[in-house]
């Protein structure tokens, strides 16, 4: 069932993640995937989670992720503590995508939704891939949740749309 403003973020959401470290900062270096308990990690934070159909794909790489990177300071000014991009790609691909975008640290995460399990639970997946959507979670409560309905569009899930609703 899709999330909507006022809903509680589910308490059993676990993604896969490879934490960025300086010693594994090169794009050809592989870290070790670890479970990332989003429900626990985000329970007391303001978070923007946006999802894309696939890492390194045209709209995602040219428009969606760069918009969030560019607007990260404005999101922080609005109290956002974590920005996370989600795709059904494996955690190694997501880690490499973060490195390719020169994203470091733990305030912008590249997370894997294996088999689009979380996205599918929302009804926001298709063919084993995550949909293109954005969710704002404020201390466990959803305050914004929108999915794109037009292929290749970044209208309701982009950084500018999310900023307008913070």
UniProtKB/TrEMBL annotation:
Domain Thioredoxin: 3-166
Keywords assigned: Antioxidant, Oxidoreductase, Peroxidase, Redox-active center
PROSITE patterns according to UniProt: THIOREDOXIN_2
Keyword match Oxidoreductase: yes
Catalytic-site annotation from UniProt: 60 (cysteine sulfenic acid (-soh) intermediate)
Any GO BP annotation: cell redox homeostasis
Recorded superkingdom: Eukaryota
Gene Ontology CC terms: mitochondrion; peroxisome
Pfam families: Redoxin
InterPro entries registered for this protein in UniProt: PRX5-like, Redoxin, Thioredoxin-like_sf, Thioredoxin_domain
CDD domains tied to this protein: PRX5_like
Function (record text): Thiol-specific peroxidase that catalyzes the reduction of hydrogen peroxide and organic hydroperoxides to water and alcohols, respectively. Plays a role in cell protection against oxidative stress by detoxifying peroxides.
Family of the protein in this entry: Belongs to the peroxiredoxin family. Prx5 subfamily.
Entry protein name: Thioredoxin peroxidase
Originating species: Aspergillus coremiiformis
């Amino acid at each position: 069932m899709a999330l909507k403003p006022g809903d509680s973020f589910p308490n059993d959401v676990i993604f896969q993640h490879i934490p960025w470290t300086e010693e594994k900062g090169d794009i050809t270096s592989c870290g070790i995937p670890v479970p990332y308990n989003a429900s626990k990690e985000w329970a007391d934070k303001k978070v923007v989670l946006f999802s894309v159909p696939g890492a390194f794909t045209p709209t995602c790489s040219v428009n969606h992720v760069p918009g969030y990177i560019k607007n990260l300071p404005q999101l922080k000014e609005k109290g956002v503590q974590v920005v996370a991009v989600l795709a059904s790609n494996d955690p190694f691909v997501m880690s490499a995508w973060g490195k390719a975008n020169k994203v470091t640290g733990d305030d912008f995460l590249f997370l894997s939704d294996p088999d689009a399990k979380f996205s599918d639970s929302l009804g926001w997946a298709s063919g084993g891939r995550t949909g293109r959507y954005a969710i704002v979670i404020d201390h466990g409560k959803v305050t914004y949740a929108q999915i794109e309905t037009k292929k290749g569009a970044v209208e309701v899930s982009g950084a500018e749309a999310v900023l307008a609703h913070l």
